[in-house]
Amino acid sequence: MATAVARYTAAAVTDRGRKRPSNEDAFGFSVEAGVYVVCDGMGGAAAGEIASSLAVDEILRLLKERKPENESPLPGAAETAVTAANEAIFSRAQRNHRLNGMGTTLVVMATQDQHVWILNIGDSRCYLMHKGKLQQLTLDHSLVEEQVRLGRMTPREALHSPLKNVITRALGTQSQVTPDIFELEAEPGDLFLLCSDGLTRELPDNTIETLLNGEMPLEALAAQLVEAAKKAGGHDNITCMLVRAEA
Question: What is the pTM for the complete model shown?
Fold first, then answer.
């Protein structure tokens, strides 16, 4: 009989990188509520910072306040929280013209026992390390990745395309947005990586896999990923969150 997941542990590290003047990434998590969030903001001035922080705060607040016994199941509650975060960002931008067009990418992991739901918008990603092998769970909402999936561009061409920064779906830029939702069952020892594209633009998946196979505490692992991305160029803000399922 398979061992059940009894709990999760988590750690996260974020860094401005080597080229950007500020950090527009944001993250937050609550092991008790079973919610983990990473966002990568976009927009002029400090707008990206505001959008990403708003999204993280709103989603954490709503899911931490949730009463499981008399409210909707967790995946529905998570999607409702994403919708509320979208409305909060969009309405804030409508009220302040200097914030017009601000938005953020989003990746959320919601857990209940061994059940895991991943919600994403944009090109922040979630990966699963299972028995030493890395698997990307989310699909990027970016112009080049959609071209790759259609067979119109190779992964190498996508990496060097001048359009690689074009996001086709973001949180807060329009009045409504729909996240992709992925569902799976975790096993003890599984390690989830939630990250902004500041990591994945600098490090190929095989390098991430090698680093995650290291035996060290979660925070040290996350810091090692961030440092590797900085050494590889550090062109963007970098955020890594690691969540481990344990027996």
Answer: 0.95
